[in-house]
Amino acid sequence: MCKGLATLPATCLKSAKDIKHKISFLLQKPEPNAADQKEIKEKTTAAPAKRVPDAAEVEKWKESFSHVMSSEMGRMVFTTFLKSEFSQENVDFWIACEDYKKSLPSKLSTKAKQIYQQYVEADAPNEVNLDAATREKTRREVESGSPSCFDEAQKMIYTLMEKDSYRRFLKSKLIQDLCQKESGSAHEKKGCDWTDSRQVLAGGA
Question: Would the N or C end of the chain have less CB density within 10 A of its end CB?
Answer without folding.
Answer: N
